[in-house]
Design brief:
The complex is a heterodimer of chains A (333) and B (300). Chain A has one domain (2-248): ABC transporter involved in vitamin B12 uptake, BtuC. In chain A, 73% of the residues lie in helices and 3% in strands. Chain A is built from 14 helices and 4 strands. In chain A, helix 4 (86-112) runs antiparallel to helix 9. Chain A starts with 6 loop residues before the first helix and ends with a helix. The mean pLDDT of chain A is 85. Chain B has helices at 2-32, 39-57, 65-91, 99-120, 147-169, 171-181, 183-188, 193-218, 226-241, 246-266, 272-286, and strands at residues 126-127, 136-140, 143-146, 221-222. The longest helix of chain B has 31 residues, at 2-32. Chain B is mainly alpha-helical. The chains are: A mainly alpha (333), B mainly alpha (300). The A-B interface holds A 50, 54, 56, 111-112, 114-115, 117-119, 121-123, 125-127, 129-130, 133-134, 136-137, 204, 249, 253, 256, 260, 264, 293-295, 297-298, 300-302, 304-305, 308-309, 312 and B 34-35, 90, 93-94, 97-101, 103-105, 107-109, 111-112, 114-116, 118-119, 228, 232, 235-236, 239, 268, 270-271, 273-274, 276-278, 280-281, 284-285, 288, 298, 300.
Chain lengths: 333, 300
């Protein structure tokens, strides 16, 4: 499993998967795959704050909205480079959208991260709501109607070879997901990452060891909001339509469910949970024909409570999938 | 000036409803140090209980004080039972768990109630039965003093006085105060902590039940997601007053109601929801313990 820790190799492996998805499956499944990737990013970035740093943020959708709105607005109103280079401009817009979200993360985080647990949850929740209300009242961003007709990523022609829209979107998403994954992964191995963990374990002890806890929390928060903003930008280009009601409290809760279900402080847990949580509602769609009422969300919330009661550490706890693999190999040898 | 008076009246009656719900948050927080996210949905269930009870008893079209009292009782009892069940099944097993887990469970319970509500009651808004024949009691210029506003204020004040008596002058109230100060020591002194916690949930959610009928009377449209926003605002009110403090919750609720009414009256109604959180953030930055809260020093 060690070779997967090399970004280039895992990128190529996922690209091959992309080719399979491109030829073997219909558009519905392809769109679901793209949403899985968006949710992966949401979960991984939230995991940095909720899982590794131990702070409880309930406003992740707000940061996502900022990135989404910026990227949507920019791609409609600013020039987009022609041809293959348009990918570059989408990447830049996503990056700036993320940067804007990070800026807001800094503004919100600096005062509120001095607070403890529950209060932080409420402030971030409040921030998410404020963003939504503000977007509803900003007319140049479409108000409550939102922005429609956001361009998708274009198809690319290289000589006689055509890469279709799905494949380009998929590679775009994979690029950002891997970037997010490896940035957080490497970060957690560094001394900054260790200080995140120490803040989670015991704030007072961390402070006594000379860690500026507020600064550490803000750092985690800013990085997390950056990736949430990028996830928002991806979301905007994949759905082609965003409105303030796309980024409600439920979106934030969704991200939290993924982190909790996967195990707080486990990257691979977040990824698996994102996969599970995105596919589950789609799979449960047929249940509606069976029961006549929409039970999806009931099952969702019930499973959240049951996970908390029966397995509070989530699927993987704090371990990674590679740890489980290693243990399995050891046991079987 | 007359506009201002009218806004004051509306704000006071709205604020007293916020205060009733905020009391539930603050009492549970005072005793368990947890945000009971499900409180707002208990309130929603209370409104639906009153709605169906009125239908079942055939009093949906016979407004009057007897109807009001019956609906209040039904709603209070339903809310208490529901909150008891939630506490017993979801919160008690997690009493010793990390705070984050309890918070997530509370969110889970809240979502469960909302979506089960959508499945059971239907997602479309329902019209709350007419509880009172609304009439104008007094009129000064264009300022109207309506019966519904007076009733809302009256019922809330009575409920709060009863609560005050309960907490300050009864044995159970004394035990509640003891548990909120230090649950371990209280249990050493022979107080059944679990029972007191259940009791707190009962009182808090009965107040939410009262609030739900009063809201139904004033804004007769109920739906499964009605608790979300009002619950958040009530929570903000509790934080504003200093969470854990009973007079703080009342004052915070009134202030929330007044300021919201003023924003709607003088600025724009689209900002009414953002206002609550704006207030919250400002309070938490400058005085995180709220108006009446005690700031605690953390000891190692």
């Amino acid at each position: 499993m060690k070779f997967l820790k090399n970004p280039a190799i895992s990128f190529s492996a996922l690209m091959i998967l992309g080719i399979v998805l491109d030829f073997g499956f219909n558009a519905y499944i392809q769109l679901t795959v793209l949403f899985v990737l968006v949710n992966c990013m949401m979960a991984m970035s939230l995991n940095l704050v909720n899982g590794y740093t131990g702070q409880f943020s309930l406003g992740h959708a707000g940061f996502m909205a900022i990135g989404a709105y910026f990227s949507a607005y920019a791609s409609l109103n600013f020039p987009v480079l022609p041809g293959v280079l348009s990918i570059l401009s989408f990447t830049i817009y996503a990056f700036i959208g993320g940067g804007l979200a990070a800026l807001f993360g800094y503004i919100v985080g600096l005062p509120s991260l001095r607070l403890k647990g529950d209060y932080l949850a409420i402030v971030t929740l409040g921030f998410g709501e404020i963003i939504r209300v503000a977007l509803q009242n900003l007319n140049f961003l479409g108000g409550a109607r939102g922005i429609s007709g956001i361009p998708s990523l274009p198809e690319i022609r290289l000589g006689g070879f055509v890469l279709d829209r799905f494949f380009v979107s998929y590679s775009f998403a994979i690029f950002w997901c891997l970037l997010c994954f490896f940035v957080i992964w490497r970060l957690m191995k560094s001394s900054h990452g260790r200080s995140f963990l120490s803040v989670r374990e015991d704030e007072i002890a961390a402070e006594a060891m000379g860690i500026n806890t507020t600064k550490t929390k803000v750092r985690a928060f800013v990085l997390s909001s950056f990736f949430a903003g990028v996830a928002g930008a991806m979301f905007a280009h994949f759905t082609n339509y965003i409105s303030p009601s796309s980024f409600t409290f439920l979106m934030s809760v969704n991200a939290i469910i993924m982190v909790v279900l996967g195990g707080m402080g486990s990257m691979s847990g977040s990824v698996c949970a994102a996969l599970f949580i995105t596919i589950l509602p789609e799979a449960l769609r047929s249940l509606k024909d069976f029961t006549g009422v929409d039970l999806r969300m009931v099952i969702y919330s019930l499973s959240l409570i049951l996970v908390m009661l029966l397995r509070p550490q989530g699927m993987f706890g704090e371990e990674e999938i590679t740890d489980l693999w290693r243990r399995y190999v050891k046991r079987s040898s | 000036m007359q506009d201002f008076l009218q806004h004051m009246i509306n704000g006071l009656s709205l604020g007293s409803i916020y205060a009733l719900i905020a009391l539930g948050y603050t009492m549970v927080y005072g005793i368990l140090q947890m945000i009971n996210f499900a409180h707002s949905d208990v309130y929603m269930v209370g409104a639906f209980a009153a709605f169906y009870a009125a239908k079942w008893l055939g009093i949906e079209n016979s407004p009057g004080f007897s109807t009001l009292i019956i609906l209040l009782l039904v709603s209070m009892i339903t809310c208490s039972l529901l909150a008891l069940a939630i506490e017993r099944l979801a919160y008690r097993p997690l009493r010793k768990a990390p705070k984050l887990n309890i918070l997530i469970t509370a969110i889970g319970v809240s979502l469960l109630l909302e979506y089960s509500g959508q499945v059971i009651f239907g997602a479309d808004p329902k019209v709350f039965p007419e509880v009172l024949n609304d009439s104008i009691l007094a009129e000064i210029g264009i300022v109207q003093l309506k019966l519904s506003d007076v009733t809302v204020l009256g019922v809330s004040i009575v409920a709060m006085l009863v609560l005050h008596w309960l907490i300050q002058s009864t044995k159970v109230g004394k035990a509640m105060r003891a548990v909120s100060l230090n649950a371990n020591v209280a249990s050493l002194l022979g107080i059944n902590v679990n029972r007191i916690i259940s009791f707190t949930f009962i009182i808090g959610s009965s107040l939410a039940g009262i609030g739900s009928v009063l809201v139904g009377m004033k804004y007769p449209k109920i739906e499964p997601l009605m608790g979300m926003m009002i619950g958040l605002k009530a929570f903000v009110a509790a934080v504003l007053g200093g969470i854990g403090s009973v007079p703080g919750a009342v004052l915070g609720g009134i202030m929330m109601g007044l300021s919201e009414e003023m924003v709607v009256g003088y600025l724009s109604s689209t900002y009414r929801d953002a206002l609550a959180f704006g207030i919250l953030i400002v309070v938490l930055i400058f005085k995180p313990s709220g108006l009446f809260g005690k700031s605690s020093v953390e000891k190692v």
